[in-house]
Amino acid sequence: MAWQKQKKASTKHDNKPTKKRKLAIGVLIAFFLSFLSVLIWSPAIAETSAPETTATQAYVVFDGRKLFKLARSGNLTATERADSVSSLLKQKVSDLQPRERLSVKVVQQQGWTVIRIGNRHLVTVTEQDHIPGMTVEEKAKIWCEKIQYALNIAVKERSLVYRTWAVQMSAIALTIASVIYGGLFWLSRRYRKKQLQNPTEQKGSLQLLGILLLQIGIWIVFFYYSANLFPETRSWLYHLLGVLDKTFNSEIINFGQEAISLIRLFFLILLGIAMWFVVCWASNFLKESILPLTGVEPALQDSIGLLTRYGLMFVGVLLIFNFAGIDFASLAIVLGALGIGIGFGLQNIVKDLISGLIIIFTHPIKVGELVQVGDTQGLVVRIGVRTTEISHIDRYLIVIPNSRFVEEAVKNWNRSGLTRVKVYVSVSKDSDRELVLKALLAAAQVYHPQILRHPPPKAQFRGFGDNALNFRIVVFISDPLKEPKVKSHLYDQMEIYLAKYDIKIPYPQRDIHLKVPQIDKLVANLVQIHDSPKPQLYYPEKIQPRDRSPQVQPDLEEPLIHDEYNWEAIVADMRGSEGVEIKDRRYGFKVFPKTFLGSEAVEWLMQHERATRPEAIAIGQLMVEQNIIHHVLDEHDFKDEPLFYRFYVDEEDEDTLEMTDDK
To answer: How confident is the model at residue 548 (pLDDT cuts 50, 70, 90)?
Structure first.
């Protein structure tokens, strides 16, 4: 059973390819489909679109080897002359008797330079055949030597000794290829096993792809080597490569005066893929290694990285088109058709693209912010050119078109720096409202690391409900993602304090009244039937009114309510060992003793008093108004700037020390 579970788990992990593996497989499939479609249609396109041309020169091929080129002569084309020479050489070798030797020589015949094989005319060397700077006779001698060498090789390769050796070499090559293939197969299984043990590993997929390509390449090399050992298979291989060459070099697309062949298109696709990887690497390097050193905010770093990526892609496409020799003026028809398609069918896509650029430049939302558009709420994970990904609280991603963030109202909880958390509760109508307010405020003031002390928590009476009094607690937090935890904390504290002071939470009550006028007659008939004494029914004369007098509260201490600002504690903490840095500071030629900076005080208040920056500045100003601190020259109020401030207590201590020294 354990083995079966492990097998199922491994199968499950194996069915979840990594992101890079999916990308590689998708690229290979797309390239194969495009290659197959172009391969099917390329002959017809080439026949209809490409102008019919005749080769000016053609190779003489013998046993799959190229010997020399022939040009057009008289009524014979270059291809016809080359085929005639190749056929005659093949015929002479096939008709060769044992121990017979073929001789090739150059002769002069009626003013022409002729190459003869035995007693047969082979080819006439013309002026069009020779290379400039070389006479016809010299060229004929070179060709004669090549033909003689090819004939000697052909005779040798058709001997029994050579064929035996070729078969042995082919068997050795097969053995070597099988051994290498087996080693690669073992290596691939090892990587697959590691990948099953660690499904998050991304390098294994690329390594498996490389091993697969090596396995295919080994067999291609083996068949190519084996085919070149025998003259018959070498000829078949040459014809096969010729067919592939014609197919891949056929002109399938014309851009003005420039024609694109299949092999050229293949290299353009490879250049595009290589350009994509280089651009991704460059943009990621810029985003992860260079931009963080500048100190700009992460959202701006993402925008710069995204714009850099698409800018480099645009430049790369232009360079690839320039390398291919494509005239941009010839793309006018294609761009015109694309414009019509955009106008009719791609309106929403273009709208999303433009909205994406607006979001990137204006920053209405940023990565890491909690936003809501329509009924969709979540954390911004990625801002793309066309779509934006939002992570929902249930841990799934929502892909939203960018146009919705431009056209619809968007709630952003991170921009204000404050999030108000509201919790509602209803208590019995008999409860003392003042006591309830104090209990709820004490519950809200219980320490929680996410609840800010400034602005302070509040407890409010919200009106009357059905047999209940409605109250609300309001607290402020700086991280909107912590709202569920803060609400849970408040509910727990509310339950503790309400139970402590015996404050009841009402529950819905429903009274049902049944009126049956014939009930007396029915009861009398039943009594007469059973001869039992008539029962006396009890009817309450009057419903007593509900006692609405306030209940006597138990003899408990009132809830402890903290003051919003405990100045003694704040001053002691600020002047303590973990407070602001108080020291002698120099400005110009004057030294100001026992001072601190206003900007440092703001940071300290934000951290230790759990206040926002505006609230921290307000606390500093209150300290100035309460004559706790002051500017050293009494020229400024409290500001979030590197200005010198001093505690009045430090001045009094300094004056006392001076008086002691005088005595």
So the answer is: very low
